[in-house]
Amino acid sequence: MSGKLKQIGLITMGALIGAALTLNYSAIAEREPEPLPIEDLRAFSEIFGKIKSDYVEPVEDKKLITEAINGMLSGLDPHSAYLDAEAFKELQVGTQGEFGGLGIEVGMEDGFVKVVSPIEDTPAYRAGLKSGDLIIKLDDTPVKGMTLNEAVKRMRGKPNTDIVLTILRKGDSKPLVITLTRAVIKIKSVKHKLVEPGYGYVRVTQFQEHTGDNLVAALKDLEASNKGALQGLVLDLRNDPGGLLNTAVGVAGAFLKPDQLVVYTEGRTEEAKMQLSVRRDHYLRGGEADYLKNLPAWTRSVPMVVLVNGGSASASEIVAGALQDHKRALVVGTQSFGKGSVQTILPLNNGTAIKLTTARYFTPNGRSIQAKGITPDITVEEATISANEAGMELHESDLERHLANGQEQTAKPEKPKTDKKDAGKDKSDKKAPFDPAEIVSKHDYQFNQALILLKGLHLLQQR
């Protein structure tokens, strides 16, 4: 087991790398090669030769082979991809919590770039990009016909340079034209606040290398601010696109008992089969200090509510599913994204790599989240949702060629329902102005409902 766990490694949830991912990082194992399909390879060779001899312009061999590899991987599912040397390097840097770009998680849909989730405190977030937005033009260049990697490269660039995005948004009659200024994205992955005496709020925006340490520091600070143990805690995973798998285990471990199962994975190879529990060798790498060692005892018993929505994906779904299965917390909000597959990074000898889907992950009770997501114990819609916005949340099951759930015929998550008397009424004017310095808004309906639930749970515990 420990040998397998050492292969858990880097994942980027950074700007414009792709839809939310959960990654292993592995060397290519020495296995008996599969027999090659000779007739198909002959057809490939013939097509390669025809392009070289008859295409309207000369094409380099390297470009043809690279595009063939791109097509082979992107045709499998939305998350498998070929990483050239630049993309591979950027993926490795992204987990440090600092990278360049716009700050959006994206995938490909109908030939357009589709926004999965804007990352908090980034240019995309401040500009108001939303889950489900379709990017149809980059500056003056149409996206149609580009691969995701090509679109990503156009959106990258030096900090303080501008790019114009043309966006189709459901419910809007005309495309939106938004100018964004590229920036070095520095993500603060854990935010916290003592919202009132006895009740704390912790928001995890991404699962990075130091998120576990930052979470423990936040919990200790809440205890100090409260001058004692909390009576209730809200863990906010809304619009958290995921991150490092081992960090997700550590975050869940802050609230579960030692040795409790957090997640397991199933794939075709032995390396793809793992069971990850609240054990230091499952959430730490190398000689890292055990950040859970000196955690206050109350964190494993305090009443909890976990907030999720359609932007909660991958590692955030692992945490929510584990806490739900162990009956450690109530999950509140709307159906999560449904990213329940593991991508393994396989480095190649030329400095490039392939990102290959190698496994599905399962909650402790054996639920596959792939293309289904986490179903809240209590569904609470956003109060500001309008009839135009209803149903525009993007989920894994909406993506082309998404991996099947593996357990059942997957139905798409139910779309939010609007009250008939409110149909057609846009209540977005009731939304408080955006304040990037605000940890959690007093106008946040889902959070306020979570706080009410926590107070009720605390009263029940006192009986």
Automatic annotation (TrEMBL):
Pfam families: CtpB_N-like, PDZ_2, Peptidase_S41
Organism: Sulfuritortus calidifontis
One GO cellular component term noted in the UniProt record for this chain: outer membrane-bounded periplasmic space
GO annotation terms (biological process): proteolysis; signal transduction
Xref: PANTHER family: CARBOXY-TERMINAL PROCESSING PROTEASE CTPA, TAIL-SPECIFIC PROTEASE
Record's protein name: Carboxyl-terminal processing protease
Swiss-Prot/TrEMBL keywords: Hydrolase, Protease, Serine protease
PROSITE patterns (alphabetical): PDZ
InterPro entries, per database record: ClpP/crotonase-like_dom_sf, CtpA/B_N, PDZ, PDZ_sf, Peptidase_S41A, Tail-specific_protease
Region feature (Disordered): 405-439
Keyword Protease: yes
Family to which this protein belongs: Belongs to the peptidase S41A family.
PDZ domain sequence ranges: 88-156
